[in-house]
Write a structure and sequence with these properties.
It comes from Salmonella enterica subsp. enterica serovar Poona. This protein has one helix and no strands.
Length: 21
């Protein structure tokens, strides 16, 4: 279950990068 949180964090980070562009 800890992996899911890590992946969620990565997805959120990528989402923020996408919004920046």
């Amino acid at each position: 279950l800890t992996q899911i949180k890590a992946i969620d964090d990565l997805v959120k980070s990528f989402d923020e990068l996408d919004t920046e562009n």
